[in-house]
Design goal:
Elements lengths: L2 E10 L2 E11 L4 E5 L6 H8 L7 E6 L2 E2 L5 H7 E4 L11 H6 L14 H13 L15 H14 L4 E5 L7 H13 L3 E5 L3 H7 L2 E6 L2 E6 L1 H4 L2 H8 L2 E6 L6 E6 L2
Parallel strand pairs: 3-8, 3-9, 6-7, 7-8
Antiparallel strand pairs: 1-2, 1-4, 4-5, 9-10, 11-12
Amino acid sequence: MSIAVDNVSFAAGNTLIVNGISLSVEKGKVLGLLGPNGSGKSSLLRLICRLRKVRSGVVRLGGSDIASISRGDIARRIALVEQQATTDTRVTVIDVVRLGRTPHRGPLSSWSARDDAAVLDALARVGMRDRAGQLWQTLSGGERQRVHIARALAQTPSELLLDEPTNHLDIQHQLDILGLISKLDVTCVVALHDLNLAAMFCDSLAVLQKGEVVAAGLPEEVLTQELIERVFGVRAHVQKSSVHGRCNIQYMAG
């Protein structure tokens, strides 16, 4: 397995945020994390990349306990796209994306053609290459999100973690970004709110509630009418889409 989480728990003070979670992701596959606000999705992503320290349990990368891997090696291997990231510094789009190359460069190393190629390729993948010289502060929320994803891609990671990457994006760019993510030759763990997008683009799903995994497996196994009502508190009709062949969810009022 590329990523394996074994009975992991995490607490903030006396509050248990992640409670005995176990899950795994095969190399090159996309795992979608679903659940209501406060279910532990963001905390789990930070535990996987060691931005948070587990209270108990083990997170493994390629079979190795992440606690035994140096922070430099983790930075070169894992890229994280968070929900919100901003700056008051006057920087351009390409300046932001260049930050993705930082883990690959020593303190005295010069910028290389390989770095340039990684940055330009990442910008092209998210449709922002023509905005390379534009100031960050002039971008819309959706454009900023695409630039953050480009920064992560410029890092050339083997594992990519994304926390609500479609926030602030219009429908076209939601589909474009998740389509891109689903075709990358990297292992992805992505936290999402939209159940239909998760069904369309993720190879497998894990549903979290109050810090625990309450369902995991293929989208069509996980996204049942009963689970959606129990976890998300809404009534829904689930059927196979005649367009993309995955399950499609229609919500019912009242």
